[in-house]
């Protein structure tokens, strides 16, 4: 059975009623509401994309000059949250910035009727992405998957104050740290890349990211799990809260450096062949396609062949396929899978 898709690619369906229906749906345009599917899947856990472009900053008065200065400060906050740039790096770009007011979507004052102490600013996401492209900044757009934080202090889970410190760092850096629930993956298994533990992380917490920390007697050991890959470091300190904040900041820096990309810039012309298994419905297919098309480094997505609950895709890329698959495995939707015949890499859909 051959199905001609809207994107101009003929897909060969070998077996499987699910995948046959999926490609038929795709061919007649019944997967248009991809945003609806994605919103249902991520709204409960991921850091929302629109939150990345908002900031609350002090403002001296309701006058235009004070407001413009606050707009500039808010823009620095947003650009720092989106990118791996430091505040010093951004300050050096001041002369290249357009009037920040031209990027503002809306704003409001917080405070009393006659005295205004803070300004809430929301920037236009497309305008900020365009600015990042013009400045050559690498950004990590949203929605961003949450980070499961499995942290113990002297053998005990985090208390209220330590949790608040962790959450505060996350808000500042555009991340959502979540604590383990009644059922949690074994941290040792996550560090070792155990497939079952990574499956549980993706299914139960909607992420492929975990920050594992052990603090005891002024010594902290941290491991950041990114889709099965790990980075480990140690810190020393006196106060546990300070070490928790430092560990969260370091994790945020590593994630930003890992996932940030310059919009519209890359090694254009790369291609890759990817097999995705575990697709059980048209909804799964729609969510997968939206996820792939949301990545600015994936220029084209063309279904090639379907078999049982799997789908072969041809991708046009701005980055190596290995980098793309690692990032997809961190999204919480997919986990690495054994290579399928005829494709370079393989992933398995888990939700």
Report on this model:
There is one protein chain. This protein has 351 residues and is of the alpha+beta class. It has 3 domains: 2-30 and 265-349, no CATH class; 49-135; 147-259, Rossmann fold (3-Layer(aba) Sandwich). The chain has 11 helices and 16 strands. The protein has helices at residues 17-27, 34-42, 64-82, 87-91, 125-135, 160-173, 187-191, 195-205, 240-259, 282-293, 321-329, and strands at residues 2-4, 10-13, 54-58, 104-111, 116-123, 147-153, 156-157, 177-178, 209-216, 219-226, 229-236, 270-277, 298-307, 310-317, 334-336, 345-349. The protein has a 7-stranded mixed beta sheet with strand order 1-2-13-14-12-16-15. Strands 6, 7, 8, 9, 10 and 11 form a 6-stranded mixed beta sheet that branches. The protein has a 3-stranded antiparallel beta sheet with strand order 3-5-4. It is globular, with a radius of gyration of 22 Å.
What distinguishing features does this structure have?
351 residues, alpha+beta, Rossmann fold, 3 domains, seven-stranded mixed β-sheet, 11 helices, 16 strands, globular, disordered N terminus
């Amino acid at each position: 059975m051959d199905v001609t898709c809207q994107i101009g690619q003929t897909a060969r369906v070998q077996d499987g009623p699910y995948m046959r229906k999926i490609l038929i749906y795709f061919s007649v345009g019944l997967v248009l509401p991809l945003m609806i599917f994605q919103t249902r899947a991520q709204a409960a856990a991921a850091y929302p994309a629109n939150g990345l472009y908002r900031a609350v900053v002090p403002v001296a008065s309701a006058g235009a000059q004070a407001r413009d200065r606050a707009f500039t400060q808010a823009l620095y906050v947003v650009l720092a949250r989106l990118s791996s740039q430091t505040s010093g790096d951004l300050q050096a770009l001041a002369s290249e910035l357009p009037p920040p007011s031209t990027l503002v979507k809306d704003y409001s004052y917080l405070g009393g009727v006659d005295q205004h102490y803070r300004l809430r600013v929301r920037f236009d996401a497309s305008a900020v992405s365009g600015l990042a492209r013009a400045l050559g900044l690498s950004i990590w757009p949203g929605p961003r998957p949450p980070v499961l934080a499995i942290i113990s202090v002297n053998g005990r889970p985090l208390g209220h104050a330590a949790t608040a410190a962790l959450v505060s760092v996350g808000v500042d850096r555009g991340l959502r740290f979540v604590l383990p629930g009644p059922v949690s993956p074994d941290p040792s298994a996550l560090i070792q890349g155990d497939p079952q533990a990574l499956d549980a992380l993706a299914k139960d917490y909607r992420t492929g990211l975990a920050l594992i920390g052990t603090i005891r007697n002024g010594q902290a050991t941290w491991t950041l799990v990114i889709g099965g890959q790990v980075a480990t470091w140690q810190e020393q300190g006196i106060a546990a809260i300070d070490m928790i904040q430092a560990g969260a900041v370091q994790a945020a820096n590593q994630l930003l450096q890992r996932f940030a990309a310059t919009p519209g810039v890359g090694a254009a012309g790369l291609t890759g062949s990817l097999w995705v298994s575990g697709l059980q419905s048209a909804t799964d297919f729609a969510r997968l396609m939206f996820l792939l098309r949301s990545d600015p480094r994936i220029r084209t997505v063309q279904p090639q062949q379907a078999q049982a609950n799997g789908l072969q895709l041809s991708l046009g890329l701005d980055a190596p396929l290995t980098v793309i698959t690692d990032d997809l495995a961190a999204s919480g939707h997919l986990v690495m899978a054994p290579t399928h015949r005829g494709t370079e890499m393989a992933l398995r859909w888990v939700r």
